[in-house]
Amino acid sequence: MDIRPLNATTPGPQGLDALAATATSAVTQETAPAQAATPPLEPAVKLDIAPTGDKARYIQDPDTSAIVFQVVDPNSGNVVEQLPSETALRNRAYDAARESHAAAGNLSRIA
């Protein structure tokens, strides 16, 4: 077994300075060139009400105070389409009622 003296460390940055020097000298990865112009994407949802002659309107739901978009048949007055749906509005009203009931249960009745 040979015991050799350690060589003196090479002069240069030490510790955090060495990390910064390595980070700045690292080669950055170039991004790929942009692809040729692609045509714009079509919207995910289309609602075309013009061909049928239906009328569109916005109303405010009395239970949830949410704005509701409706497409109404002008002849019969029936709602053809509605966003958000009737089920979604019922669920929102139920959740709001449940939250207000839970908040009322946490109040102290002692004055």
Structure, explained:
The protein is of the alpha+beta class and 111 residues long. Helices cover 27% and strands 15% of the residues. The chain is built from 2 helices and 3 strands; from the N terminus they run αβββα. The chain has a 3-stranded antiparallel beta sheet, with no helix packed on it. The model has no long low-confidence stretch (mean pLDDT 75).
Task: Summarize the SSE layout with pairings.
Elements: H1 16-25, E1 55-60, E2 67-72, E3 79-83, H2 86-105
Antiparallel strand pairs: 1-2, 2-3
Distance between the termini: 88 Å
Biggest sheet strand order reads: 1-2-3
Bin the helical content.
25-40%
**What is the arithmetic mean of pLDDT?**
75
Q: What's the gyration radius in Å?
A: 34 Å
Taken from the alpha-carbon principal axes, the silhouette is elongated
How much of the sequence lies in strands comes to 15-25%
How are helices and strands ordered from N to C? Answer: HEEEH
**Largest beta sheet, briefly?**
3 strands, antiparallel
Structural class from helices and strands?
alpha+beta
How many DSSP helices?
2
- What is the total tally of β strands? 3
The low-confidence runs, each spanning 5 or more residues with pLDDT under 50, are none
